Amino acid sequence: MSAIIRGAGAATALSTFNPVDSKKLAAPSRTNLPARSKRYIVAGSDASKSFGSGLRVRHSQKLIANAVATKADTSVTTGTGHELLLYEALQEGLEEEMDRDPHVCVMGEDVGHYGGSYKVTKGLADKFGDLRVLDTPICENAFTGMGIGAAMTGLRPVIEGMNMGFLLLAFNQISNNCGMLHYTSGGQFTIPVVIRGPGGVGRQLGAEHSQRLESYFQSIPGIQMVACSTPYNAKGLMKAAIRSENPVILFEHVLLYNLKEKIPDEEYICNLEEAEMVRPGEHITILTYSRMRYHVMQAAKTLVNKGYDPEVIDIRSLKPFDLYTIGNSVKKTHRVLIVEECMRTGGIGASLTAAINENFHDYLDAPVMCLSSQDVPTPYAGTLEEWTVVQPAQIVTAVEQLCQ
Amino acid sequence: MALSRLSSRSNILLQPFAAASPAALRRQISTDTSPLTVETSVPFTSHLCEAPSRAVETSSKELLSFFHDMTLMRRMEIAADSLYKAKLIRGFCHLYDGQEAVAIGMEAAITKKDAIITSYRDHCTFLGRGGGLFEAFSELMGRKTGCSNGKGGSMHFYKKDASFYGGHGIVGAQAPLGCGLAFAQKYSKDEAVTFTLYGDGAANQGQLFEALNIAALWDLPAVLVCENNHYGMGTAEWRSAKSPAYFKRGDYVPGLKVDGMDALAVKQACKFAKEHALKNGPIILEMDTYRYHGHSMSDPGSTYRTRDEISGVRQVRDPIDRVRKLIISHDIATEKELKDMEKEVRKEVDAAVAQAKESPIPESSELFTNIYVKGFGSESFGADRKELRATLP
């Protein structure tokens, strides 16, 4: 992308880098936390990923300006936020956008009367009718193409893949028609679709239902990819994706649907291309997204106890990468660890490693390390499945290695 | 009028009888919109519906416009052929000559609100929708002034204001898109229909049946038109399809088989199909047509069929000749006038080609434009954050 080419130019201008500061390693300080830090209780349905600390530092100030200002102005504790689960947050975002714009419609398998296989579209068919919440037959290629054709005329369909893996059947439509029509028509047609669905490794779902499609889609020019990880950014990203004029693929994760969090009552939107600073730190930058964020945060607890100060960034935007946030972090810590659920070969981590090496090579003290899932089909047996994805213990070991 | 009925084809005889200058005679004829009824070459074959009548209402003006437009299309395709051989057009170039009647007849039956989407053999469909010769040639030669700014090429012609949705390279991929267009028309209550064109090769694609099922299930105003030119690139129809009755393949969807070389039959069928689709949901039209060129310019077109077959069809079923004979037999214009028209068309096409040859190529910055749409939430920024972020609406 042209953005990266420009970035490379900027990076080569400076070449100073700090050697490892051993004194910093010894002092487990939390002084990097900004004054305004809120801690949200995230209760997971599974103990292994129950830790979540959402530090709301990095939103675009403009986007939340109203929310914060209103709170300060009124100084009344109405609207302190409401607690909900991630799938309810997605539903809320979707419903708000459907209320706001009559062109928004939903199509997918069992999204209407059934309420959605993960309940994201529950209640919407009753409210908006069968034409706006469309139950399609099982033909991913056709209904994805249908959504794209409808988008060419100005509708804004939200296409749901019951499981992201099923969208492989619609790859032609997503790649050639969704991604490229804006370009090949010389800008005449915009394709404001949102393609969303759960993916990732679940609980013994088997190889074909545990796919991570972000690695397959990342090369398609013309689309944007985002991955949500908390109820807050799920709602925000859903709204932003629907409002965007570009085709956006929103990756959700099967295991994150029951995360609980308190989100603001006011309307808010997250920026599609922005990464989220989960935990600022000094020693190492850990880049992650989706479910691995929780494994990383769990490892961070252990790391802090051991005296490390990791900076955790949820990259959120898988295409394009937020090289600004990532770059600033690399310039600060000089070490990068990428933790992802994709396969190692050709995954998001692989591209991110390349991008960081190209743009920030002079700032790195150690090679970029990438922890990904094993390059195997996901087995059914529980223990084997656990070993295919990155576990917190491995993250701790990797950080210790990198910080040596 | 009675006088003109008596006259023969000879120009000399015409003049003293008409007692008017040839120019006045021509003007009088070409603006005549009084109805004329012509019978189609063959009756329609139908499946699960009642075939429309063979008698088609037309007018002199319409027939002349058919002749002019089809000649324009034919000339354009021939010119594209020479440009390709001169290496000014590269890549794939799929020519439509022989099939012009389908594009022309369809246009005569519908409005610009009805959408058309087709495959890669789209040059003439683009012209039919109101596209210009200059834009077409520029796009073929990859110039900035092309209809897709030179970035689409032969297979990606689009014209949004005329509801022409392209122009698609992957065989059959336009079928679900077409259903999406029909869905949007139903959603917005447009009272318009979508014509989704595909070929006999694409008729074997699974996504077509998926799209048919969806269209029939939700009563979408979709007309699926199979342009059956009997060859899927190099594979003849009988070698690729168990059942070559493409109009029956919809099973529960009604179908109509039409002589695709007869522009009037196409017009009648499309009119019928539009009325049907608006009331009863999808319908399939199979246009029995023929392409003179090979599948594309890389295909000589004669390894899987004989030259005799091609010239045979050209002699007996050529769409332009059919209209020419109609015009002459109804004394709407003389042969000379038609030849003059052809010469005019040829000049027009040559002028457009010359103008397009002079057009500039796109600038290198165009490589990165139109990948994303600029707007809220879609501005991407690099490491130096030089680009402005969009503001919340």
Automatic annotation (TrEMBL), chain A:
Localization of this protein: Plastid, Chloroplast
A cellular component term, taken from the record's GO annotations: chloroplast
Record SUPFAM superfamilies: Thiamin diphosphate-binding fold (THDP-binding), TK C-terminal domain-like
One Gene Ontology molecular-function label: metal ion binding
Top-rank taxon, per record: Eukaryota
UniProt enzyme class: oxidoreductase
EC number: 1.2.4.1
Pfam family, one: Transketolase_C
Chief place of localization: plastid
Obligatory cofactor(s): thiamine diphosphate
Catalytic activity: N(6)-[(R)-lipoyl]-L-lysyl-[protein] + pyruvate + H(+) = N(6)-[(R)-S(8)-acetyldihydrolipoyl]-L-lysyl-[protein] + CO2
Keywords: Chloroplast, Metal-binding, Oxidoreductase, Plastid, Potassium, Pyruvate, Thiamine pyrophosphate, Transit peptide
Start and end residues of each Transketolase-like pyrimidine-binding domain: 84-259
NCBIfam families with a match to the protein in the record: PRK09212.1 (NF006667)
Assembly information from the UniProt record: Tetramer of 2 alpha and 2 beta subunits.
Function, as annotated: The pyruvate dehydrogenase complex catalyzes the overall conversion of pyruvate to acetyl-CoA and CO(2). It contains multiple copies of three enzymatic components: pyruvate dehydrogenase (E1), dihydrolipoamide acetyltransferase (E2) and lipoamide dehydrogenase (E3).
This protein's name: pyruvate dehydrogenase (acetyl-transferring)
The species this protein was found in: Thlaspi arvense
Automatic annotation (TrEMBL), chain B:
Enzyme Commission code: 1.2.4.1
Catalytic activity: N(6)-[(R)-lipoyl]-L-lysyl-[protein] + pyruvate + H(+) = N(6)-[(R)-S(8)-acetyldihydrolipoyl]-L-lysyl-[protein] + CO2
Top EC group: oxidoreductase
CDD domains in alphabetical order: TPP_E1_PDC_ADC_BCADC
GO biological-process terms attached to the record: pyruvate decarboxylation to acetyl-CoA
Cited Pfam families: E1_dh (PF00676)
Residues of the Dehydrogenase E1 component domain: 69-363
GO terms, molecular function: pyruvate dehydrogenase (acetyl-transferring) activity
Swiss-Prot/TrEMBL keywords: Oxidoreductase, Pyruvate, Thiamine pyrophosphate
Cofactors that this protein relies on: thiamine diphosphate
InterPro entries per record: DH_E1, PDH_E1_Alpha_Subunit, Pyrv_DH_E1_asu_subgrp-y, THDP-binding
Function: The pyruvate dehydrogenase complex catalyzes the overall conversion of pyruvate to acetyl-CoA and CO(2). It contains multiple copies of three enzymatic components: pyruvate dehydrogenase (E1), dihydrolipoamide acetyltransferase (E2) and lipoamide dehydrogenase (E3).
NCBIfam families cross-referenced by the UniProt entry: PDH_E1_alph_y
Subunit structure: Tetramer of 2 alpha and 2 beta subunits.
Protein name: Pyruvate dehydrogenase E1 component subunit alpha
Lineage: Eukaryota, Viridiplantae, Streptophyta, Embryophyta, Tracheophyta
